[in-house]
Amino acid sequence: MFLTCKFMKISPKLEVRKSLDIIFSGKKNVHKYDVISTLEEKTRELRCAIEQVSQTDYGKLFEVCYEDIITVKSSSEEHFEPQPTRIPVVFGPFYLIYFEEKPLGEYIGILAGGDIARKISTILNKLVSTGIGKTTTSLHGVKFLVREKQEDIRRIPDFQDVTEVYVESIPDAYVDALWMRGTMLDQTDEYQKFIEDLGGRLTILAVRFRDRIYYIYEDGRIFTKQAADRSLPKIANEIQYFYEIASRLHGVGAIK
């Protein structure tokens, strides 16, 4: 089962922390996060629901659903010609982990792909801005320094087996980008040539961890194709793997 965790860092500002604590307190599950105009020149509130569903060993796990507007074309019995209509749709549930254990006590993990993770982080930023009465960025996207810290990452005992890499911006007359797959790739001549000698940009590093393959993306995502399940009980267990991998990256200074 595919599963992604996008890591975000919480702003150190005290007012931001207090606002997030209120949002995640569970006292109010449904929040208005935006007001939009429809094609009919009406306004509509967009809402999200945030509810704690579990207390894990690493932090609180929340279920997130949100409304958004999509444009569809519809016809009527009188007129076949399709007309665009904007309708509200509920997306979710998705899951979010509010880490409480060091060294990740300043991070949130959104268990969703890139577009959805961006949407949820945008919603949280809007809720915090409303809560403190001014525009602010409460969550900052992090980067995993897979290029700058690749040697340190490869030296982590649990990460010794590098199974896949993606390299771009290679200064070579014939090769612009390269995706390599195998075993112990960091010991190969190709790795030495395209990454260490030519200095290609390493953006994805896949390692074997706990008998699974995890992809560490430069943009702050950790992804696996081998998650047990996306059901709530299994999601709570999957948090452990993401926490342990990110903690090890933090330990070698590979999170920025």
Question: Can you walk through the features of this model?
Answer:
With 256 residues, the protein is α+β, with helices and mostly antiparallel strands. Helix content is 25%, strand content 39%. The chain has five helices and twelve strands. Strands 1, 2, 3, 4, 5, 6, 7, 8, 9, 10, 11 and 12 form a twelve-stranded antiparallel sheet that branches. Helix 1 crosses helix 2. The radius of gyration is 21 Å and the shape is globular.
Describe, in short, the structure shown.
This protein is α+β, with helices and mostly antiparallel strands and 256 residues long. The protein contains five helices and twelve strands.
Could you give the distance between the termini?
28 Å
- Report the sheet with the most strands, covering strand number, pairing sense and barrel closure: 12 strands, antiparallel
Specify the number of helices.
5
Number of strands: 12
Radius of gyration computed on alpha carbons: 21 Å
Described by the principal axes of the CA atoms, the overall outline is globular
Total domains: 2
- Residue ranges: pLDDT <50 for 5 or more in a row? none
* Helical coverage, percent range: 25-40%
Characteristics of this structure?
alpha+beta, twelve-stranded antiparallel beta sheet, 5 helices, 12 strands, 25% helix, globular
